[in-house]
Structures are given as structure tokens and as C-alpha cells.
Amino acid sequence: KSACALPPRVHFHHLCLGEDGVPDARYRSFGNLTTALGHSEVALLKMDIEGYEFQVVDALVRGAAAASSRL
């Protein structure tokens, strides 16, 4: 076991939030990440985004607007 084992309900995914595939395949939109992980809702989202706060919030808002327009 590692020294920083996570509780069973806590998961860490080595993925990047952003535009799908830009600059590489690790980057996914928030909507595509939640779909791929099988989540219908997110209660808490922790991100280490120092210096990219505005870009990430902008991407989240644009993604939410696009999703609501498809309803």
C-alpha cells in the first residue's frame, strides 16, 4: 500500500480538463469527462489550476451552456 492511500470513495484521475484533444488526448471537456466516468452529477470538484482559473471557468460555462441548449 502507498503511504497516501485514498479512502474507498475518493478517486484521483490523471486527466486534464480542457478542449477535447487539445493539446493531446489527456484533455477532455467537462461534459465528456463526466460521461466517460459515468457521473450524472458532480457534488465536489477539486482542481489544481493555478494561473488558469479564468480559462477553466470559461470552458465550464461554455460547456454548460452548450449542454442546456441541447435539452
What's this entry about, in short?
The chain is mainly α and 71 residues long. Helix content is 34%, strand content 6%.
Protein architecture, described:
This protein has 71 residues and is mainly α. It has helices at residues 30-36, 53-69; strands at 16-17, 27-28. The protein has a two-stranded parallel ribbon. 4% of the residues are buried. The mean pLDDT is 78.
Please give the largest β-sheet.
2 strands, parallel
Report the strand count. Answer: 2
User: Which whole number gives the mean pLDDT?
Assistant: 78
Percent range for β-strand residues: 5-15%
Give the end-to-end Cα distance, rounded to a whole number of Å.
Answer: 45 Å
Fraction of helical residues: 25-40%
* Rg, nearest Å: 14 Å
SS element count, helices: 2
Major β-sheet strand ordering? 1-2
Shape by Cα distribution: globular
List the helices and strands and how they pair.
Blueprint: E1 16-17, E2 27-28, H1 30-36, H2 53-69
Parallel strand pairs: 1-2
Supply the key terms.
mainly alpha; two-stranded parallel sheet; 6% strand
